Structures are given as C-alpha cells and as structure tokens.
Amino acid sequence: xxKAILIILISLFSFQSFGQDPDLxxxxxxxxxxxxxxxxxxxxxxxxxxxxxxxxENLEFSGEGACNTFSGTLSFDFDYPDSPDFALDFTSxxxxxxxxxxxxxxxxxxxxxxxxxxxxxxxYTIQTNPTTGVxxxxxxxxxxxQMSFRNAPLSPPMPNPEIxxxxxxxNMYSEEFNINILDIxxxxxxxxxxxxxxxxxxxGACNTFTGVLSYNEINDExxxxxxxxxxxxxxxxxxTDFENNYFGxxxxxxxxxxxxxxxPTTGVxxxxxxxxxxxxxxxxxxxLSNPDYKLENFKIYPNPVxxxxxxxxxxxxxxxxxxxxxxxxxxxxxxxxxxFIDVSTLSKGLYFIEISxxxxxxxxxxxxx
Length: 369
Known about the structure:
By secondary structure, this protein is mainly beta. Helix content is about 10%, strand content about 45%. The chain folds into 3 domains: about 20-150, Lipocalin, CATH 2.40.128.270; about 155-295, Lipocalin, CATH 2.40.128.270; about 295-369, Macroglobulin (MG2) domain (Immunoglobulin-like). It has helices at about 1-20, 105-120, 235-250; strands at about 25-35, 40, 50-55, 60-65, 70-75, 85-95, 120-130, 135-140, 145-150, 165-175, 180, 190-195, 200-205, 210-215, 220-230, 255-260, 270-275, 280-285, 300, 310, 320-325, 330-335, 340, 350-355, 360-369. The strands form 4 sheets. An 8-stranded antiparallel barrel has the order 1-3-4-5-6-7-8-9. It has an 8-stranded antiparallel barrel with strand order 10-12-13-14-15-16-17-18. It has a 4-stranded antiparallel beta sheet with strand order 22-21-24-25, with no helix packed on it.
C-alpha cells in the first residue's frame, strides 16, 4: 500500500515538473500585444524590430525587446481549472535599462515588459498550423491581456529586392527646378544606398547622411522615419544649394514612391523616387562619370499650344510621356517612342509635361490655349 502511494506521489511530482508541453521550450518571436484598449502589431513598428522570448526546461527565460534584453525565472501552476492549458508564473524579471533611439521603441518596451512585471499568472496555449507546421504561443490574462508569439520570425512586407543597392543620383526636379548632376561645377557624385533592413545612407556634395525608412505594402511606398546629415560647410555655393534641395527630399514622415527600370540592352538600372506632387529624384546603379548618361534638355513647342505638342530630344529615346493638371491629376499618359502628343482634348490652362528616358526625367510647363 505504501509503495503504491509512493508511486502515485512520484508520478504527480513528475507531471507537475515535466508534464507541460515540451514544445513550449524554444525561442518564440512576438507578433502582437493585446490590451483592453490597445493593440500592437510588431510588424507595424518603425523601424522594424524582432522581439523574442526563449523558455528553457530548467524554468529560466530570456528575450529581447527593441533595444533591451531581459532574463528571469518562471514556475508552473496547475491549480486553475479554467485555464485552457497551464498557467505560467514569472517569478523574476530582470531587464536592461538602455534608452532606445526611437520613441516608438521605448513605448513598445514599456508595454511588452509590463506583462512580465505586473501579471502574476499567465495562461498559455500552443497551436500548430497543420499546413506550415509553424507554431503559435498565446500567453494571456483572460479577459484583458494577451501576447501572441510564433516559433518563426515574422517576415515583413518588402519592396522589390533590386532596390537594395547603391544608387547614383542623375537628376532631381520639382516645380521650381530641374537639376542635372553632371551640370554641377565642380562635379560631384551624390549617392543613396538602401540596405536590406530599410536603413539608408548616402553622400551629398560635401556631407553624408543616414536614416531609416518604413515600407507600406498597400501603397508600395516608403515613409521617411529618420534622417540625419553631417553639417560641414561646402566650399562652393552651388554645392550648398544642391544639398539643401537633395536633403530636403528626405523630410521625416514624407512619402517616397519608387519605380525601378532595367534597360534591356545594357542591364543598367534606374531608380525613381517621386514625391507628390511634381518632385522627385532619379538614380542609376552606374556612376555618372560618362557624358552619355547626361539627361538631355528636352524642348517642347509650340507653347502655348492648341492641338499637337512637339518634343525635341536629340540622341535620346523617349520612354513615356505624362501630362498633369495643376491639381496633380494625371490627364494623359503615353508609353512608347514618340515626338509629339495630342493635347486638343485638354481644357484651357497651365499643365506640366513629364518626359521620361533611361537617363531620367524632365518636367516642362506648357499652356493649352
């Protein structure tokens, strides 16, 4: 009889120590936090982060927030019949105390670490996707808080991977100017490098810059999260004026629409970063040391025009032509080689014509009479 009781006690002790799901003991990557009045999707945080939680069989845990790490110990509680599985008790929690560079990261860590510091018991369940095999760990205080993890890192939406390289600025334009880099004297070689984590760096005339972008998959656009440049005084006023215009395109919270074109014969790629309305930058992945890459000065005539607007572009093949109204609405678009465009159906007024070639874009104004 005593032997049977002893076996039962040993069995209970073994269950309480090791009966929990062994799949729990691995590294988990946070996907979301849910509070009563707050919902945070990690993939929406800018700049991107990969917060994690690692649980071990010796009842220790560790993990990462945004710029801080943490560690601690935990225990299991089996006395809560309403729990869908078992309850975790984080008995100690020790985070580092670094100040993150970005306010959004600091705010996130306040919310994430709060789970471990204020909740005495957290229920958990593990679910496995039968198709992908990816597991989800849900840790929650029923009714008002929940952390959701995956055992595979989140894959954020990404732009065309061909954009991740160094680009050399060929020209930039707005309603007020159209600057061709090869026309700047003394010559400069401004660049823009986009990294796989969507951070960027570059060179102006005498200054350098760094920053971070975020990517909006729905609109296929970038938003400028952060931009910092050095503050050296250039030797030439033309260089100073250029940098004021160039760096101005990277205004924080500003949108950048991108397009990549590959010339089928040479394989040379061009990148356009456009800013609504009538402003943008054109780059090439080949450094502009050859006059053949210089954007030609297109000429349009007659101006004012009533029917056909002619375009003169010596030694340059036109790829597309777009016409915009003063409100920024695209009213005409032609994607082929042509040297004229019919504007007879346009209403009277002032318009902008955007002419694109492999070497960049040129914007002109014309009047429809």
